[in-house]
Write a structure and sequence with these properties.
Helices cover 14% and strands 40% of the residues. With 171 residues, the protein is mainly beta. The strands form two sheets. Strands 1, 2, 4, 6, 8, 9, 11, 12, 14, 15, 17 and 18 form a twelve-stranded parallel beta sheet that branches. The radius of gyration is 15 Å and the shape is globular.
Length: 171
């Protein structure tokens, strides 16, 4: 893994987190417990801070960044950021699934228990209400999240990534 101090800020990573060998984490990045940062993921806290809660997985090729002196990135607990997604200068609350290849731009707020569909683009300042699914380009609400989707998708994926990271930590 590439860990780099920038402007006196060093990433803070809990001992029980998994970080892939070629993941890059730089600057003012703080993560909670049971997080996993996967292959080719980049978390760049060079121009503002990135703060992640517990049980967050940043999947392969995803990029998490901020906007200089304007928009940090805050990610709550039990959040999955799918392969090749971009999360930039926004707030992601608890129990959220950010689908593969999606983009969440500056000043967006994704409230708890929500899903951003694969390939969706949340344009600057979009507010995703709690318990909704947003899809498309630009992303719009397509429906509400059912209790089954919460357990079958949001919780299942976050829990699976804790399990998967255990396989890699054993080696």
């Amino acid at each position: 893994m590439i860990l780099k101090t920038i402007n006196g800020k060093t990433p803070v990573i809990s001992d029980d987190c998994f970080v892939a060998e070629n993941a890059t984490i730089v600057g003012d990045v703080t993560m909670g417990k049971q997080c996993s940062i996967w292959y080719n993921a980049v978390l760049r806290g060079d121009v503002h801070f990135i703060k992640m809660g517990n049980k967050v997985n940043i999947q392969d090729g995803a990029v998490v960044h901020c906007t200089y002196q304007k928009h940090p990135t805050t990610i709550g607990n039990n959040v999955s950021v799918g392969h090749n997604a971009i999360v930039h200068g926004c707030t992601i609350k608890d129990n959220v699934l950010i689908g593969m290849g999606s983009i969440v731009m500056d000043d967006c707020v994704v409230e708890s228990n929500s899903i951003i569909a694969a390939g969706a683009v949340l344009t600057k300042g979009t507010h995703v209400p709690s318990g909704t699914i947003f899809a498309g380009m630009p992303a719009k609400k397509i429906k509400d999240v059912s209790p089954e989707l919460t357990s079958d998708e949001i919780d299942r994926i976050a829990n699976n990534y804790v399990k998967y990271s255990g396989w890699f930590k054993e080696d």
